[in-house]
Write the structure tokens for this entry.
Amino acid sequence: MGYPSGTTVILMTHPSYPAVRVDVPAMVEDANGDPVDIAAVPAALAAHIARLEADGNTILKSDATGADLPDSRAGQSRKFRNCWRWDSTKIETDLPMARAEIMAVTRTERNEKLIDSDGKQLKVNETGSAQDQTDWETHRQALRDLPATVQTDVDALTTAADLEAHAVTWPTEPTA
């Protein structure tokens, strides 16, 4: 994965958003607010970087040729771009943050599944058999218990690639 030759790439962080952000500006505004091709006017890049710094960003690395940055994020999942960290030479995925992100997504999806099942559970409670009611109660309990199971699995993963490949196995919804 890389950028075309001559692409400007800026790596930065901000105190309110500590993950590494990648800025690939093609057009920026000059002092008059007119669009300028960043590759054509080096002063435009300097002005753009100055604006980024004035907004509180810390510039980690900037490369106007794109020559030494393509590999800096090689192997890093865009899925975890909110968890990227800069180690002075390359971008790395902060694994504890990536694990926390997986768990947050899992809880959100689980909550949606619980909400979706509310009406089904009520209908079964009114018209279903005792077995149907038990099946739905068991299913909903499995959904409530799922984060603890997933957390154990996620904690055992040791690379960003393993985290990206991780998929939650959701409890099968009862047929009634």
